[in-house]
Amino acid sequence: xxVETRYAHSxxxxxxxxxxxxxxxxxxxxxxxxGEAKGVYxxxxxxxxxxxxxxxxxxxxxxxxxxxxxxxxxxxxAGILNIGxxxxxxxEGTEFRVGHAEAxxxxxxxxxxxxxxxxxxxxxxxxxxxxxxxxxxxxxxxxREDMNIVEIGSAEASNRRTLxxxxxxxxxxxxxxxxxxxxxxAGSAWNTMPPHTHDRRTECYLYFDLAEQDRVFHVLGRPxxxxxxxxxxxxxxVSPSWSVHFGAGTGGYSFVWATAGENxxxxxxxxxxxxxxx
Length: 278
Description:
Elements: E1 2-6, H1 11-15, H2 19-26, E2 27-28, E3 37-42, E4 47-52, E5 59-60, E6 76-82, E7 87-91, E8 94-98, E9 103-106, E10 114-117, E11 126-132, E12 140-142, E13 148-152, E14 161-167, E15 177-184, E16 190-191, E17 196-197, E18 201-208, E19 216-222, E20 225-231, E21 236-239, E22 246-249, E23 254-261, E24 270-271
Parallel strand pairs: 1-3
Antiparallel strand pairs: 2-21, 3-4, 4-11, 5-10, 6-9, 6-11, 7-8, 7-10, 9-12, 13-14, 14-15, 15-23, 16-22, 17-24, 18-21, 18-23, 19-20, 19-22
């Protein structure tokens, strides 16, 4: 088990960072390693995220010292998306069979959490996003039929995309997490455009299903002091509450969006006009 730490930074500090410093502060680009469970602990809203790629024997959800708990979900809940081949999540004796781009919600207190792949030669890859939770809610498997699917954007604006809302109010509830994924349509490039901030919570993007040669140019920072990082398949980027978060890809891609902080309301956003970006 390897868990890295990302500390919080002010807008003024970020405005002075070069590319290497931005990546060190906000990017985790080696989370998914075959046969391993790797994590990143964020001082932004105390988020703890893992990439878990089981091969052979099941891998247990690690309990890093950063959470100082008997087990990771003792005081936390988790949103999980499988971005690889089919696999299984087990929690407290319950088995959830999870296909590609299907999700699981685990409520606070879940014990004995393990991950396995149906075929070790073509492993599952589980993205596990955890946040502190104040109440216990039931575990749930979230298939495509359970998601709220929304079409937004347009081909004319190069931002046509499909949102898959997995853990949201009114469908699969949580204490603190909003969680889902978006697929950008062929011929479009932009995600989360027009952009927004939300000063009450932190958001993480995990880009996936990129071809090996493709990249996403991801924009962060204050609307009037934008910076960018270049991301590849299965790279994670953190967006502080004060930061915009949007990007454009050189080819097709999807990304997991997940928030934690003051509330779990999906539409809690402060919109930014494109003309105000600098």
